[in-house]
Every structure is written in structure tokens, then in C-alpha cells.
Design a protein that fits this description.
The complex is a heterodimer of chains A (254) and B (481). Chain A has 254 residues and is of the alpha/beta class. Chain A is built from 8 helices and 12 strands. Classes of the chains: A alpha/beta (254), B alpha/beta (481).
């Protein structure tokens, strides 16, 4: 579904990603782990179409098409979804309106009839129950005054309603207590399916106790330094990221 | 597409009302002197007191110079190179009913979307349309008169209700008030007049639609609204002008008088031609609007959506004279391209237990400069006065500016005055969040701007709310429930 080849990415002339190779197939869940400033969030945002990053080399193909040539809204309509690490506030715009606008924009793109207010409300109420969200949050402005947990759950709600084919979750677990983490994990597991791929970007192994990935990649200084199965995350938890970096260093010296 | 491009696209949408109607016009000679004023007064067949008042205003105006204290920069206005009166010729003798109005004129109004024809009147808006300098049709007059409501062109009021005019004209905005108000008093050619008798709740929104059509004409209209004891009226005003390379002057005066227990709601959607992308042409909008809460527990609110004009200089104010009176000001002002707006309000607390609310939303885009200027003044006798001011600015793009000048003068220790201000920018992050959800950049900007203005739009009557939304290029949320 997603094929990244030798991807190099810069921001303000500084190279953040230095030759990423990654293949994600439909039905798979991949975790991308790594220390702070390793380039995890850059990768997530770049895939979603953030324009502040510049691709200097390499390619990204999504469902066989050049992802990098598409605008962010086109990517969204084609089924690429990013759950933001820091969801943005939009004062005066109700959460319900925002969601309805987004859903209908995507439906329109696929030449589906737009949902009217009643149908939308029925759908959103049912999904909110699933992700354990208070209905009152529908009428509040997008993310305004939401607690950290509410913001993350709001992202999961959007994920659930927009039903993307490729979901990228950027540190959706950070700042959550254990109950909230479980709810978020349930929401993500709910989305697992044969024709959907999920990329979890995370700093900690903790989330992976609840969402068991098919593959784990460790990103360090803009490169994937190690890939493996779910066990890799457990090793990392035990030894810390230094373990890998030291190993990497030894390899380079040897 | 980059964020800047997206914003530019929204900003650079073309002016929709820039057509010009070919009409034969009755125009008096170029320039301004005492005989110009005598000529205007004669054309209007005015009683002596009006001419006398105009001439006094003119003499006073000669002693004044343009106010330059605002955060605005405009090229000098040649007051001698303008026409001070222009009327569509076919209306020379005044309109009698709609069938007698030049069909070309009616088509103009149709293009503007004004429901002028009787069958469209069922919508419930009574319209007094001012085309250049004269009032062409006042609809629904009959229905209103059964309630004792007077709603007519100013020139008609001067003929039919001279005592009311004499009593109230200039009582809120005297001809000495400021340069532009003096000029208006001297040369104003028409406008709207409205009187709501005691205890009458006006059953429909009253509306005036202004349009500047002729070249090189200034529009100087004057609106006078009196709500007698316990009366209620909601009044709407809309404006457009054709596209021209020259600047055109608009110097209007609006006076509102609310007697005991009366309430006046006055809403404006101002969409005068703003000039082109390089700042060429556009209306100079120098307007004096003031309301007087003369009676106890009276209530005046101003709501304005200012999207047009090259220069906007406008401070709708309320004098809170009656004890327990309430003044409100809700404003959305958008300046894009090279537009400049210096707008705000004055709330003058004189009576006890008076209350005022100010909510200002300024949006700057392109090279636009948007200034909020507000005065909250609490006099020594205004025991227990309250004011709450919130003024927010939204910036779109890199070259625009937002400025806030709040003035607060409090002479009574029991007063409570609050001021809150914020400035934000539609960030690349906010836009990305929307586009990542599949929303087009254009709709995203509209949605964000609409959200920003929501609290003010809620104050507008439904019909205008829709127009305001369109003007800002946004679709209103909440209408689908």
C-alpha cells in the first residue's frame, strides 16, 4: 500500500530524514519508534502533506501512485489520515461542523451523496459512544479547551468517522493516562482490517502492549536503524534507545 | 499550493457589485459653495429652517480641516472637484409608485438582490432605497402607517413632518460635530427617516439600501431614527457602489434617539467598492453614527459588517444618558488588498446603572490595515456603570496589520470596565489540520474566518447574516441545525 524509497527530507536547509526505506502492506500495523528528534513526526507529517518540509531525494508511492505529487486534501480524500500529535484549535467552529465538512468533502470526492445533518448526527453519536467521548464535545469549538485526553480521543473519533485506508498516528499515546490509553488503543484496534494499514509513531513501548504491531522500525537520526517484529519494541523498552545507537556506533567503527 | 497562495485566492475574489447603470441624471454644477447649498435646498423645496441649518453647517465646515488623527492614509480630497447632487432624471418629480420607476433602475436593484417589487415584499423587509442622492422607493409604507410608524425618505419627512425633523435633526450629531458631519449637514441630499410611536413594536425589519452610481458624486445621506417611549425597531442598512478608478466620497450621518424603555437595533452591511488589488479607486467612507439613549432603560445596539471601502472611518457610538440604559457595539471589519479601516465605538456613560458591551472582530489580509479605536468614558454621575470590551484581530498573510487603540476614561469609582484583546493569525498549522481532513484550503479559510466572526453574526438579523456570510465568502454554520 505504501512504499517509501530512499527518502531524504529537509526543513530550513537541515536534513531530517536521510534515506528512509519502508514498505507497508494493506492489513498491517507498523510501529515507528525512536528517541526525540529522530525524525518520527517529520515522517508522519510529510506523508500527510505538510508543506513546510522539502523532499530532496527519494519517492513515496501510495496505492501505486506518487503520493508526493498530491495536495494534502487530495491525500486525505484518497484515504491518508494523520492523527495529530498536537491537534489544532479552531475557535468558533463547532466540532460537529468541522467533522461534517470533512466527511462530506471526502464523500463528494468519491461521488457519494453528502450526509445531511440528521444522518451525520446518527453516525457521529454512535461513533462517539464507541470511543468513549462525551456528546457535549460535538457542540464545542474544535479542540478549544479540550483536555489532552479529549483532544487525542477527538482524533480517534475523526479516524473512526473518516475511515481512511492509511492511518498514521503521531504520538497519539503521549500524555494519556492508562484508562485513556486503553480507550484510544481500542479505537485503533477497532480500525484494523484487511484493506487498511496503520502506522503508529510512538516514543514508548507502552502503546504496543495494547496494539500489537506486525512490524517495528527504529528511527534514529533520520534513518531506520533496525526493523523487526513486535519483540523489538520489548527489547527497546528493556535496554533503551542507547542500546541501538551504541550498537550502531560499534558497527561503524568495526 | 502554498498557504500564501491559498489566502491570496480568497482575498483576491472580485468585487461583485461593480456594474454601472446607464441613466440620465440631473446633476448640479461641479463644486461646493453657498449657492450649491441653496440649489440643493431649493431642489428639495425645503422650508427655511433647513436652509438656515445647512448654511450654518457650511460656514462651520469652512473653519474645519480633515481629521488626520486616525491610523489611515488617504490622498487629499478635492472638495471642489465633486458633484454634490445627482438624481436619476426620470425621478425628478419624486417617485409615486413602483410602476413609475425607471425599469433600468429596478433592474439595478434586482442585480443587487433587493426585494423592491411588491410581490417580493412578502419577505417582510421594508426597503427605502437611496440611489445616488435621492430616495427612489419606499415600500411597505402603507402597512407601517396603520401602526403610526413613519418610514420615508428624509426629504419627504422634511415636507410632511417638519416639526419632528426640527426637534430631532442634529440633536445627536450636531452640525459642529466633526469635519465630515458638518459637510454632510451642509449638502446631504436625502436619506431615511423613521419614527416609531410610543409602545409600538415595529413588526418588520426596516431597511435602507444605498448605492453610489454616478461618477464623481459624493453620497451624503442622513438617517434619523426615533423610537418613542417603549417602542422597538430593527433597522438594516446595506451599501454597494460600481467600480471606478477614482476615489468617491461617502460621508453619511446616522442619528438614533431612543426614549424611555425604547430599543433600537441598527445593523449595517457595508460593501462599498474597496478599490482594486493595487489600491486604485474605492470609496472613502467617512461616517458619523451615534445613538442617544435619552430615556431610562433604553437600549441601542449597533452591529456592523464592514467589508468594503478603500478607507473606513467610522465609530458608531452610544450616549448612555438615561439611567439603566444599555449600549452595544458588534463589529466585523475586513480589510484586504490595500484597504484601510479605522473603526470602533464610543460608549459614553452618563446615567446610573448604564451598561455597554463592545465586541470587535478585525480581519486583515493582503496589505490591509485594520484598526480598532474605542473610547469608554464614564462620567462622574454614572454610578455603577459597566463596560465589557473584547476586541480580537485575525491576520491572514504576512503583509497586513492589526492595531488596537482602546481609550478608557473613568470618573466614577464604582465603575467596572473590562477590556480583553487578542491577535491571532490563520496559521499554516490550522490550515493543514483542515486540509488533512479533506477540506479544501478555500473552504478551510472560510470556515476559520466564519468561526472567528460567529459571535457578531449571531447579532445580525437572519437575512443580513446570510449576506454577511456571502460577503466574507463563508457558509454559515448552524443553519442546518
Amino acid at each position: 500500500m505504501l512504499s517509501i524509497k530512499n527518502l531524504h527530507v529537509c526543513i530550513d536547509g537541515k536534513e531530517i530524514l536521510r534515506g528512509i526505506n519502508l514498505d507497508v502492506k494493506a492489513g498491517e500495523v507498523h510501529a515507528i519508534m525512536g528517541p526525540n528528534a529522530s525524525g518520527k513526526s517529520t515522517l508522519a507529517q510529510l506523508l500527510a502533506g505538510r508543506e513546510i518540509y522539502k523532499v530532496t531525494a527519494g519517492s513515496v508511492h501510495y496505492l501505486g501512485r506518487d503520493l508526493l505529487a498530491m495536495s494534502p486534501e487530495r491525500r486525505a480524500c484518497e484515504g491518508v489520515f494523520l492523527a495529530f500529535q498536537y491537534p489544532v484549535e479552531i475557535p468558533g467552529v463547532s466540532n460537529a461542523l468541522f467533522l461534517k465538512t470533512a466527511l462530506n468533502a471526502i464523500r463528494k470526492y468519491h461521488r457519494l451523496p453528502e450526509l445531511d445533518a440528521m444522518d451525520f448526527l446518527t453516525l457521529v453519536r454512535e461513533r462517539m459512544k464507541r470511543v468513549g467521548m462525551d456528546e457535549a464535545l460535538l457542540l464545542r469549538a474544535v479542540n478549544e479547551g479540550f483536555s489532552g485526553g479529549e483532544k487525542k480521543r477527538n482524533e480517534i473519533l475523526q479516524l473512526n468517522i473518516l475511515q481512511p485506508r492509511l492511518a498514521i498516528l503521531d504520538e497519539t499515546d503521549s500524555g494519556l493516562d492508562i484508562d485513556a490509553l486503553k480507550l484510544v488503543a481500542d479505537g485503533v484496534n477497532d480500525m484494523r482490517g484487511a484493506d487498511r494499514a496503520i502506522i503508529l509513531v510512538t516514543h514508548y513501548q507502552r502503546l504496543l502492549d495494547y496494539i500489537v504491531p506486525d512490524a517495528v522500525h527504529v528511527l534514529s537520526q533520520g534513518c531506520i536503524v533496525k526493523s523487526g517484529g513486535a519483540d523489538l519494541a520489548k527489547d527497546l523498552e528493556r535496554h533503551g534507545y542507547n542500546w541501538l545507537e551504541t550498537g550502531d556506533l560499534i558497527k561503524q567503527i568495526a | 499550493m502554498t498557504t500564501t497562495q491559498q489566502l491570496n485566492e480568497l482575498i483576491n475574489r472580485e468585487y461583485q457589485h461593480g456594474f454601472y447603470t446607464q441613466l440620465e441624471a440631473d446633476t448640479i454644477p461641479l463644486g461646493l459653495n453657498e449657492s450649491t447649498i441653496r440649489l440643493i435646498s431649493a431642489k428639495k423645496n425645503e422650508p427655511a429652517f433647513m436652509l438656515e441649518w445647512r448654511l450654518k453647517a457650511y460656514q462651520h465646515w469652512l473653519t474645519l480641516s480633515e481629521p488626520r488623527w486616525a491610523n489611515l492614509d488617504w490622498s487629499p480630497i478635492d472638495y471642489q472637484n465633486a458633484y454634490y447632487y445627482s438624481a436619476p432624471k426620470s425621478e425628478k418629480n419624486g417617485p409615486r409608485d413602483l410602476s413609475e420607476i425607471d425599469p433600468e433602475l429596478l433592474r439595478t436593484y434586482e442585480k443587487l438582490g433587493i426585494p423592491l417589487k411588491e410581490q417580493k415584499m412578502l419577505a417582510g423587509v421594508a426597503v427605502d432605497a437611496v440611489f445616488d442622492s435621492v430616495s427612489v422607493a419606499t415600500t411597505f409604507k402603507q402597512n407601517l402607517s396603520t401602526l403610526g410608524i413613519i418610514f420615508c425618505p428624509f426629504s419627504e419627512a422634511v415636507q410632511k413632518y417638519p416639526d419632528l425633523v426640527k426637534q430631532y435633526l442634529g440633536s445627536v450629531v450636531p452640525y459642529t460635530d466633526n469635519f465630515f458631519a458638518s459637510l454632510n449637514a451642509a449638502v446631504f441630499s436625502d436619506g431615511s427617516f423613521c419614527y416609531i410611536p410610543p409602545g409600538v413594536h415595529c413588526p418588520m425589519e426596516l431597511s435602507t439600501y444605498f448605492r453610489i452610481n454616478a461618477k464623481n458624486t459624493g453620497q451624503f445621506e442622513r438617517t434619523l431614527i426615533i423610537a418613542d417611549k417603549d417602542a422597538y425597531v430593527s433597522y438594516l442598512e446595506g451599501c454597494t457602489a460600481p467600480m471606478r478608478d477614482e476615489h468617491q466620497l461617502h460621508a453619511a450621518v446616522v442619528e438614533l434617539i431612543a426614549l424611555e424603555g425604547a430599543r433600537i437595533k441598527y445593523a449595517t452591511v457595508q460593501n462599498w467598492y474597496p478599490g482594486d488589488k493595487e489600491g486604485k479607486g474605492g470609496i472613502y467612507n467617512f461616517v458619523t453614527k451615534r445613538g442617544d439613549c435619552r430615556g431610562e432603560k433604553s437600549h441601542i445596539s449597533w452591529t456592523q459588517v464592514e467589508t468594503g471601502s478603500a478607507i473606513t472611518w467610522k465609530y458608531p457610538s452610544v450616549i448612555l444618558r438615561g439611567n439603566g440604559s444599555v449600549g452595544e457595539f458588534y463589529s466585523v471589519a475586513l480589510s484586504n488588498n490595500h484597504q484601510q479601516a479605522d473603526t470602533g465605538t464610543k460608549m459614553i456613560h452618563i446615567g446610573r446603572d448604564t451598561k455597554s458591551t463592545v465586541l470587535s472582530k478585525g480581519i486583515s489580509a493582503g496589505y490591509g490595515q485594520n484598526t480598532y479605536r474605542g473610547l469608554i468614558k464614564v462620567l462622574s454621575g454614572a454610578e455603577n456603570a459597566r463596560n465589557y470590551t473584547q476586541c480580537d484581530s485575525l491576520l491572514l498573510g504576512e503583509h497586513c496589520g492589526a492595531h488596537t487603540f482602546p481609550y478608557i476614561e473613568v470618573k466614577n469609582p464604582s465603575a467596572k470596565v473590562e477590556h480583553e484583546a487578542s491577535t491571532s493569525r490563520i496559521g499554516e498549522e490550522q490550515l493543514f489540520y483542515c486540509t488533512q481532513r479533506g477540506i479544501s484550503p478555500e473552504n478551510a479559510v472560510s470556515m476559520i474566518v466564519s468561526g472567528f466572526c460567529k459571535a457578531v453574526f449571531q447579532e445580525l438579523p437572519m437575512e443580513f447574516s446570510v449576506e454577511a456570510q456571502k460577503l466574507l465568502g463563508v457558509s454559515l454554520e448552524g443553519s442546518t441545525g
